[in-house]
Amino acid sequence: MDLIESRSILSPATGFIRRGGFDWTCNPYVGCTYGCRYCYAAYLPQNRRPVADWGRWLTAKRNAVELARRQGHKAAGQGVYMSSVTDPYQPAERSLHLTRGILEELLPHQPRLVVQTRGPLVVRDIDVLSQYRAVRVNMSIPTDSERVRQLFEPKAPPLDRRWAALHELKAAGVPVGVCVTPTLPIEDAAGFARRIAALAPDVLVCQDFHDAGGRFGADTSDAARRLLAETGWSPADYRRFVDRLRETMAVYEGEAGFFPPGEIAARG
Ligand code: SF4
Q: Ligand 1 pocket, 86 CB below 6 A?
C-alpha cells in the first residue's frame, strides 16, 4: 500500500452524484482492494493504473484527517457522498482509521452524509455516525447468492456479514439503505425480497446491470459482462425482481437512488 499527501479531501461532486443532489465526494483512499469485477471506478480518469490491475493496489491519503479538519467547514449542511471511487471501509481502514477520523472532523459541520460501502467494519463507527443529524449508510448487497457474490466480488465481505451490519446500524438508530446495485443474478427472488422487507431500509436502490455499459457510471468490465451472460440472468428477470420488490416497498432505480438523506419526500 502506498501513502500520499493529498491536497484535498472534499472534491466537488460531478456527474450522476452531482445530479443526485450531492455537493461533495469524499475519498480517503485511491483504489480499492475489494476489486469488484464490475467496478466502474477502474475506468475513471483518477485511476492511472492499468484496468487489469484494479483491486491489486491501494493508496491511502495519509493526511486525510488533517485535511478534513481544515476543509470540513466547506461541507457544512451540504450533501457529501463517501465514497465515489473507493470503499471507505475496506480492510486497510481497520488499522488506518482515516474514514473514522474524517467522520469525526466533519461532525461539527453536520453535512448531509451518505456512506456507501460493502464493509461491515462500518459498525465500528456507529458511535460517530449516530451523532449526525442527516446520515444514511448505504450497504451494497447486489445479490442473495454467495456463489454469485464470489464470482463478481470475490474479495468483498460475505453477504451475511453485510446483513448483520445493516441490522446493527438500524438497531442503533442509524438510517440505512440497501443497494442492490448493480443487480446481479438473484437465486431466490421471493426470499430476497422478504429479507429486504423485513429489514425495512430507509431507501432501497436497484440497478439493471444491463444498463451499465457506459450510460451509468463509466463502464464495467468485459469479464463481468461475460460472467453475467453465463448465468443466464436477463433484463426480464431484473424487471420481475423489481416488480416483486415494489409490491411491498418503494424502489429507486439507478441514478434516481443517489440522493442525500432528507430528500426522500421530495423525490418519492
Ligand atoms: S467496493 Fe466499490 S469501489 Fe471497491 S471495487 Fe467494489 S464497487 Fe469498486
A: yes
